[in-house]
Automatic annotation (TrEMBL):
<dbReference type="InterPro" id="IPR037355">
    <property type="entry name" value="COMMD3"/>
</dbReference>
<dbReference type="GO" id="GO:0006814">
    <property type="term" value="P:sodium ion transport"/>
</dbReference>
<protein>
    <recommendedName>
        <fullName>COMM domain-containing protein 3</fullName>
    </recommendedName>
</protein>
<comment type="similarity">
    <text>Belongs to the COMM domain-containing protein 3 family.</text>
</comment>
<dbReference type="Pfam" id="PF21672">
    <property type="entry name" value="COMM_HN"/>
</dbReference>
<dbReference type="InterPro" id="IPR017920">
    <property type="entry name" value="COMM"/>
</dbReference>
<feature type="domain" description="COMM">
    <location>
        <begin position="33"/>
        <end position="106"/>
    </location>
</feature>
Length: 108
């Protein structure tokens, strides 16, 4: 709860209402809120320095290249990456757009 309150930049009124919903007494709420607000800047700085996100695909650029492979040549390495389902759907959409553009260019 503390980290979420820092992430959402909650003020004392929001924290108080959440703790009241959790059936905390007014003295405990006041004590917690005071100390939370005292430590909030330090917690914000700590969260700013802490991260656990992986690199992710943010955009796709493409171009039409022609490669002629000779028989007997070694194959290239496979590209490996990871992404969320939403990012994968976005990538698939962009690749479909690229395919449509290639088909359009080929028909002209």
């Amino acid at each position: 709860m503390i980290l979420e309150a820092v992430k959402m930049d909650c003020d004392s009124s929001i924290i108080s209402s959440v703790l009241e919903d959790c059936k905390w007494g007014s003295d405990r709420i006041e004590y917690f809120t005071k100390h939370f607000l005292d430590w909030k800047p330090d917690l914000e700085a700590l969260l700013a320095r802490t991260g656990s996100s992986f690199p992710h695909v943010v955009d796709v650029d493409w171009r039409l290249d022609y490669y002629i492979k000779e028989v007997g040549k070694a194959q290239g390495k496979d590209v490996q990456f990871s992404c969320s389902m939403e990012q994968l759907q976005d990538l698939v959409g962009k690749l479909k757009d690229a395919c449509k553009s290639i088909e359009k260019a080929a028909s002209n």
